[in-house]
Amino acid sequence: MRQNVALLRTACLLAALLGAAGCSHYSFSPSLRTGPRTVAVPVLGNDTIEYGADQSATDAIITTLTDDNSMRVVPEGEAEAIIRGRVTTYERPVFSYDAAGNPREYRVRVVADLSYEDRRTGTVIWEGRVEGWGIYAVSGEEGTPTTEEEARTAAFERLAQDLLSKTVQGW
Q: How far apart are CA 91 and CA 135, in angstroms?
């Protein structure tokens, strides 16, 4: 009888120890992340002749970072990181032609040279080219944007998504 009681106590103790080991600390908190938590995005420069390309790119980047919620966009004086750069290309070449050789679709393409710097350490985390594009149809084909402005918006949104991928890929 004593042997059964001792065996039962040992089994209960072993079960408690195994259960406790399985319940080790786990958290959904981002406290283990070492990267910057705040970022500033001053208005980009504009090396193109496209009026407002700088502000459109900056706005798209801020919106994308805000929507992603991986970093908080703050004024430059409060930021742990900063994104700087210039829009270097804005073009809209013909993307496709109809049977008669007339332009059917145009592709808006935007390119920016950007850098992402950790201001706490003074190190550039990455720098390089990001790109976005959007297509619009002259004839207003179903499912395709019908104005350059719609394609332009899509191009800047894709550019901002490219930046977001480069910025948070190491997490």
A: 12
